[in-house]
């Protein structure tokens, strides 16, 4: 992984690059960010930069002996510890080492995935993964060895919050009496689940969620989505590229058109068309139905904000802006809350397996009433 392959985060990249160039690399660093953020990707790019034999001003070279190995995650001085569990193929000595091939595939396919995806990838079924006592014993042995090729041994621990308490204490000991020429990169989603004594011994690298623009550009490049689809997904993904990727396979229709037609039919009391739409809604399937209602709520929130102050709404594609402008005229203080609540309730009922067609028609009747009785 190179810094240039990660969207945005210029400031964090700059700090990381400078720490290497100025020889101020802290021996233990905590890359802290929500699931689907760039925390793992940045830690990988950082390790690659540290080991690079021909460092460029802002990034690793990508072609030296070290970069080639780092890019395949096969550099002998780059070690991984991650939560694992027994599976059909690994029934005893359940250690990270045994899952390295899986790990490489998993990370190289997409470094923004979460624990659930990892557990699925190794075939854990319903078992929980963790970082075991035995794993920490291996880690202590590992760091006592000298580096093979580079200056440093780097140990990347993914999701250290899933350490067995014994393992966490063993790691704490290592951080208190750091072995020579060893770097620990902890990649975590929740610092509050770590021992405070561990976090206090690390330098924290806060990794913010991706912005909407970054998610859009990722979806366009990586999944070849068009503007509209990428934009719709970005609104639901909450800055997570993992969520965005999953939504890409779930979202099959154009929510915007469906929503605007729906509102128009409600407003004009065209209930025959509403019934037709309810058939379409039914066909979306439950996950898509929920996603659609969340999308609707999100767009609706924009309409309300627009009504308060136009400048509160940034970054709307032209067709959506046009709709928001028109629709905001029929939304008032009086009906806004009721409409939002109706959409929320529809989502609630779909989640609890109510009949989608009935939910849709029911909501439509309520919404029609609220739209026509704005005052
Ligand atoms: Zn290089």
TrEMBL record:
Pfam families: DNA_pol3_delta2. InterPro entries: DNA_Rep/Repair_Clamp_Loader, P-loop_NTPase. Gene3D superfamilies: P-loop containing nucleotide triphosphate hydrolases. It comes from the Bacteria. Signal peptide: none annotated. PANTHER family: DNA POLYMERASE III SUBUNIT DELTA (PTHR11669:SF8), REPLICATION FACTOR C / DNA POLYMERASE III GAMMA-TAU SUBUNIT (PTHR11669). This is DNA polymerase III subunit delta. It comes from Pontibacter aquaedesilientis.
